[in-house]
Amino acid sequence: MDLIVLSLVLLVLFLALCIFAFSRRSDNGVKLPPGSFGWPIMGETIEFLFGKPENFVGDRMKKYSPDIFKTHILGEKTAVICGPNGHKFLFSNEQKLFTAFRPHPMQKLFRSYQTQSSAPAPQTTRNDETKVIRSPGFLKPEALVRYLGKMDSITQQQLQTSWEGRDEIKAFPLCKTITLTLACRFFLGIDNPERIAGLVSNFDDITLGMHSITLNIPGTIFYRANKAATAIRKELLAVIKEKKTAMATGAPMQDILSHMIVASDPSGRFMPEAEIADKIMGLLTAGYSTVATTMTLFMKYVGERPDIYKKVLEEQLEVSASKKTGELLEWDDMQKMKYSWNVICEVMRFNPPLQGTFREALTDFTYAGYTIPKGWKVYWTVSTTNMNPEYFREAEKFNPSRYDEGDVSIPYTYVPFGGGPRMCPGKEYARLAILTFVHNVVKKFNWELMVPNEKIIGDMMPSPEKGLPIRLHPH
User: Fold this and answer.
1) pLDDT per residue over 191-235, tens digit each?
2) Is 424 annotated as a binding residue?
3) What is the CATH number of the domain that holds 455?
4) What is the per-residue pLDDT across 110-149, written as a single tens digit (0 to 9) for each?
5) Residue 14, in any domain of the structure
6) What share of the chain is helix, strand, coil (3-state, %, to 5)?
7) Among the four 144, 253, 292, 316, which has the fewest Cβ within 10 Å?
């Protein structure tokens, strides 16, 4: 028995020494930010993933510094830079001090083409999906305006098929079907609701797996995500082959997938099909979950506030009154939806559809008196300002009018889409998709929440705990 006790004591001492050495370790003697690297190997990943990220960040800001702290998450030494000054610093130094970085789970899910060939994979720029869609201007307003009518008709069709005639629905799954249908039509040029609906659960699994422990054994989040990615990749490869066949017949193609198929790099190399599939999967994931979440939480917060619903409805009826019967939405209509967009902005302030993203330090740099070494990761998060009463009066109050009252006048306090050169390229696409949904849903229905004060759960991407069950009342 004494031997067992002695062994346990020695084990505890060994672990304590490891933790002490790990947390005290510095890089080349530089003055690192305050904070803790946590446990050996795992660091503070468990606390980051399984607590709320905003709590993880907020607690450490109070404990260490409101400007910056260090941690070790998802296998990387990481500096978390906080507050509006931190946002400005990060946005102003893209590609000077930082470059985009994908955590290891995302690399494994969206970079399969780099390991499928025995030949070395060509060097690719991180996050080069966004370069592909920025270059031909697919997501610029002048390109999106051509798609707006289709976006409106698809939304109407989805509401008619899955919402009308039903007394009770779960809003979140149906919002996900709408957004995935829109994304597949826009990115892939396919318009087959049945084919698309079958992919929803796979995209859900990928979304959860993007920020998870990369333990690929049955029963884990990452295992399910990896399995889902394989299924989606298989479907996308089939779509790519169909698209190539159609393009060979001279069929007009105006979607992003067609552009990826014909695009080449300076050496004349075309993208392999496996690479196209992975890049498209990344785009679909980005254009799906965040938009669906915002639509759903609009239903939640407006369902709690009849006064806000009334104002949104009045605005949308004014838009309809200026149009002929059956006429689809146009660009000018979207500019009239100012209050509706204020409501969406407040939804995103309360529950950002994406909590944050990662960068990698290209060189040693100093911030707030501390040095962040080259190769470290930098975590950027909206949660250090969104609910801070220092920047938003009555921050806990849902108040869409604050955006007309100068309550967001302090620069870099409200940045749900990021900023600088890496501002979300899909911002305008998301705005149009969400406002199109708002326009159609409030004109057709009033609704009441069946689970008042339903809890919002999730780590990096929030969702209503029970899928937001609502009772519909058609107009």
Assistant:
1) 787 787 778 889 999 988 998 889 899 999 999 999 999 999 999
2) yes
3) 1.10.630.10
4) 887 665 443 433 334 444 545 555 555 667 777 788 889 9
5) no
6) 50, 10, 35
7) 253
